[in-house]
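Fig. S4 source data, part A: sequence.
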Amino acid sequence: MKVLVIGHPEAVLGFSLAGVEGITASTPEEINKALDDALQTEEIGIILITQDASSLIQTRMDELRQRSTVPLVVEIPGPNGTSADQPSIGDVLLRAIGVKL
């Protein structure tokens, strides 16, 4: 099972250093295409999408959060980090895949 990151270039680069593939996307069209491709790939089990990217396709993200099981779609902090009322990236990954960073 593979993990794929979609969104901000810095997040994609950071995850690539850990061996996780990613797709840089900054427009709704690019994000939707990347999601469509990822959802059709059976090897991908988890899709991480940065908050800045997910905010551009909020309606679709809401639908994916409600009905997506495999692959699991998880929103991660963007380049500005998390606000005080949002969980850290470590907490998000712990809930999503059971790994504590």
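Fig. S4 source data, part B ends here. The beta strands are 2-7, 21-24, 44-50, 72-76.
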